[in-house]
Amino acid sequence: MRNGRAAAILLSAVLAGAAACSATTPSSATDSSPSASRSTTGAAAGVPTPDHVLVVVFENEDADAVIGAPDAPYLTSLAASGAELTDAHGETHPSQPNYLALFSGSTYGVRDDSCPQTFDGPNLAGQLLEAGRTFVGYSEALPAVGSTVCKAGDYARKHNPWADFPALPAEVNQPYSALPDDFADLPTVAFVIPDLCDDMHDCGVRAGDTWASEHLDPYVDWARTHDSLLVVTFDEDSGSRENLIPTFLVGPMVAAGSSGQHTDHYTVLRTIEDMYGLAPLGTAAEREPLRGIWTTG
């Protein structure tokens, strides 16, 4: 992983966080924005509160093309060590609305990958900052802190939803190179977005699995002894109506095995919000958090 400016990032983000949760109508949406939320205290019953959550999003692969596939030995073994969600689904096709759903509880009526998009509604980062916690999204190949460019090399803003919410402080939008070497310096919740090759979008499953082995394994080893969680998911499958995607969780609070709970990106968002006592946003309020996969609670 990388050496980041974590302390400065987190201090700046907390100071600026209160402004991030305004809930006016988004300028480019065709449906209503998710309702604003009020923070509560403590995790919801039955859901743990990890010290850190790292969410990694890959691209455009069917569940059986990754878990158990010969081109993905590392991700297959990692899934086997945690809780594999066998009934996990993307919301729609193509990519962009799925990232928005995961981050804000709404697709905002977006039905394509057009850029730029700009929204004023509430979102997970704003919720965490308002609650005195922290958030950073780390995007591989992002050209600069806070960049709102639509495309740069193998970076694509369509996979980076926090760039679409200008009320958020620029410091929540970081290059992957800023990820701290000391994982204790990670924010409460971090998203990692590999570039268009490493996320499997352009270069296939084997390239993404190799990247995961090199970049995720150190965090997984650390998380097991530091009460922290890894969530691996995909934005969508290869284009089917069912949209069944690989999704699994690994950490000391997770019981190894499979879960057949129907899951989508709103379920994952709801689970993270419940972990930190945050009221669920938009469609996440219609989902139950993940149950039956935790070692306690």
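The above is record 1. Record 2 follows with the same two-line structure.
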Amino acid sequence: MEVGFVGFGRMGRAMAKNIANAGHQVRLWNRSPLGDAQIEGLTMVARPHDAFQADAVVTMLSDDAAIRDVLISSDVLLSARPGVVHIVTSTISVDFADELRTLHDAAGVGYVSAPVFGRPEVAEKAQLSIMVAGLPERVEKVRPLLELIGRKIWVLGQDPKQANAAKIAGNMMIAMAIETMAEAAVLVHDNGLEPARFFELMLQTQFGGSRTYENYSAKILQRDFEPGFRMELGLKDLRLAVAAGCGTRNQLPLLEVLCARMEEAVIAGMGEQDWSAIADYTFRRSRAQQAQLMN
């Protein structure tokens, strides 16, 4: 299969290589120059339009604005190969997912939304969890490609925004779990119990088997905030969740508080750290508040 790929950051690089390693011809375009480096199995193309001269195209771009700039402002969809299916793996707003569906239909281009759960190291191992929504015949056409980058595919419906809603809500839950662990660690520490002992207890009782709690409790204890998923992107996703809630006129008070907290951390200069560094921000706020009370 001829596959176009747009977006060659850490996630995109792993996904594109896994597709190429399976023997597919991959046409790659990236927003920023990649130099003269030759990447085995991948053919660099001059324009995103060239990437869309394929049977299927995967885009892994950072947000709504990036997709709009690359694909819509330059009318890429209008020049796409007939029959191509576009797989959008980015985390985007539900409103933009609706807009993309309309634009793809008008251009005669197939559209499948397929955001993923997993950090770059998970993508390298082709172990992503993929949420998919789109018309069944389009999903089935691209399923072989998705199976090359993920460990499990969850087909959630025929409306693309259903997959985006799931991804946004899922990231909201992960961020809430990180903040929950941070606040629990503060509570036990201030009462004489080491957070490591507390997390060991929780992971062997109430939260055993939870990847989120296992992975992020370790990062919190080790203060390992090297970016796998940058906090500025985490804040973007929380804002998408707030917007989605507003769109359905639902009040989501915990989400709004956490979004405000993460915004404070980004303003404080933590945006390039992993989003689990929100725990460090919580710790430092707690220490600062205690110091003020002692004074």
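Residues 2-159 form a domain with the Rossmann fold fold (CATH 3.40.50.720).
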